[in-house]
Amino acid sequence: MNGIYLSIDSSAHASVALVDAANGTVLAERTSPAPNDQTETLNAYVAELLADQQIQGPALAGIIVGVGPGPFTGLRVGLVAARTFAYVWGVPLHGVMSLEALVQRVLDTEGQVPSEFVVAADARRRELYWARFDASGTLLEGPRVGAADTLPALPVYGAGAGLYPEQLEQAGAQPVASSAEWLAEAALLGRRGLQFLADGVDLSDTAPRYLRESDAQVPAFMRKAQA
Amino acid sequence: MNRNEPLVLGIESSCDETGVGIVRGTRMLANTVSSSMEEHVRFGGVIPEIAARAHLDAFVPTLDQALRTANVTLDEIDAIAVTSGPGLAGALMVGVSAAKALAVATGKPLYAINHLVAHVGVGVLEGTVLPEQFGALLVSGGHTEILRVGSLTEDVQLLGATIDDAAGEAFDKVARLLGLGYPGGPAISKAAVEGDRKAFRFPRGLSLPKFVGTAEKPGKHRHNFSFSGLKTSVARCVEHFEAAGEEVPVADIAASFQEAVVDVITSKAVRACQEHGLTTLLLGGGVAANRRLRELLAARCASAGIGLTVPPFELCTDNGGMVAALGAQLVAGGAEPSGLEFATDSSQPVTEILR
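Structure tokens for the assembled complex are given below, as produced in the milestone run.
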């Protein structure tokens, strides 16, 4: 595969990267230090990276976007931007589950990857988004959302491990302390997505992985009216 | 950039309508709206998270449809305008991020504008020349405001607003009480046709002398509205009939409730115009569809010597065309674009026309 890909993930912080498909080199990346400024920062990062690398949008080989799971509002900011870029520039859009960025980091960092492991991100409301993988990084279960003590008794990587280490340990899981600050970053997600594309995986689905319904309850008076 | 008759694309996502409109100067070329209204019916009101999810999926198809309808390309567009507030935060952020991406992708300047002032912006469409100064009455599910407009692009003042529910919200809540379904506006209006609007005397909120004062010494709420007491009063009335085991006179209650809302809105709007020397009033917002509101407002404006302008209904409800129309005025007036880093403001004041 050849060409430059734009990668966007807003499932945790606003994060943008340009990745060269020929060798997986990350040409440039920007990730916000804050968890709640996607609307303000993300599109400006894209403009800045393209200008710095002197790349025109229509010349991109494709766009890789994180489809979550992640807090809804921030997640949508990245998704609607990615869909708009793909539409205007006429380039292909590929959706990758955001926790795959953390898997890429596990594969990059760990000399000996556990035979099975879990990656977990902050789902707020005292819960985690998580998924289970084997040593090769193949998805075995998830993504799911739930309290820390519902995770499998396996090594846990990612910001989720840093948030609730005690509950994880009580449930028999092993939070990996060195990974406690790991977030889904666009550079990691982009490299992971390029590997999927090289392997012929279908990434055409860019529907957000909310995992939770909207909180809305049908009020009693409406149930009465509809009955 | 063409500042005489700029070609502007406007994006609206502050509530449950995803709108993309395209305006050349003061001429509307396209006004495509995708609504998630149907998805909110079973909840009896707009659910912000459902609205935001719908915006994400509707944006690109709505944009594509608007460009096709206007028969223009993004290359030809001079500027992009987007509603940055007021509105539902999560909904606004989808439209704003889409607008920023569109600005980055096309290199066009982006203007972040006020939703309420955009409602007034439709007044300039089709070359209508607005008077030097005029009033605007905005009545919808999210808003009930009286504005003084000295200049669409530079001078808008809030004269009065609701201190609790918006008028459209009151219609929704009372429709629920009466088992009339959602949205409440059309449901109440339909039921009221058969009813007697003088059957019950429901309260006109913030009409007591202590709130209103006099023209010389205006009270704190002279031009403000309140509909929550009215809603409670209707609930008591319904309970009274139910407790007595009698059939609830739905049509009479609907007609009397509608009359209370319309009476207080129109009398306060006309008084605000008179006291601020405004001889023209523009009506906007979804409740402008209410026939009794238009009828009574027209009569009261006529007796007060105030000219009334009611735009076509599709321009009264939320749409992208109004955002484009105000955007075109700002571009023509030489306004500076907003850049890429502005935030949404769910309570953006009318004095902040452009962020």
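The CA atoms of residues 40 and 46 of chain B lie 5 Å apart. The beta strands of chain B are 7-12, 17-24, 27-35, 79-85, 110-114, 134-139, 144-151, 155-161, 280-284, 307-309. Further analysis is deferred to the final report.
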